[in-house]
Amino acid sequence: MPEGYSGQGFFATSFDKVIGMARKNSIWPLPFATSCCGIEFMATMGAHYDLARFGAERLGFTPRQCDLLMVMGTIAKKMGPVLREVYLQMAEPRWVLAVGACASSGGIFDSYSVLQGIDQIIPVDVYVPGCPPRPEAILDGIIKVQELIGQESLRRRHSERYKELLNSYGIA
């Protein structure tokens, strides 16, 4: 070891990378499917596309065990508080994937009863376009979430900017 080298900087950097690699290759998705995008997600889970190749084969249907919320389909305004509660029950760190036009922007349903994008009530990390999106697009969204997770610093969730983002959504 060189003289005066403590090794602390190397260890912290390597530890961030190891944790990022482990997180990105073991995503536990929580599907919140309400419409046709959910059917495309089912195809993505099937043998032909096989989402398990990306370390996301363990679907959880309880928010306390999952770290990726996949919102697929039309979200009515009455369902908004339920979706928000599901998001809040998830443990940190948590990520959100908005699948399809309806979850991203309300889609073709520009009416008083449809939420015009889930980013009005919870923060979204990755958007998947399409109506409905093909399974390949959903896989691409998962890969983008993995890239985000792998590059995310362990300190990001404790930063002032992240806390301000949560406060802007009314989440403390």
Automatic annotation (TrEMBL):
Statement: the UniProt record of this protein carries the keyword Cell membrane: yes
Binding site for [4Fe-4S] cluster: C36, C37, C102, C131
Keyword set, alphabetical order: 4Fe-4S, Cell membrane, Iron, Iron-sulfur, Membrane, Metal-binding, NAD, Quinone, Translocase, Transport
Subcellular location: Cell membrane
Subcellular location, principal: membrane
Known partners and oligomeric status: NDH-1 is composed of 14 different subunits. Subunits NuoB, C, D, E, F, and G constitute the peripheral sector of the complex.
Protein name (database record): NADH-quinone oxidoreductase subunit B
Organism: Compostibacter hankyongensis
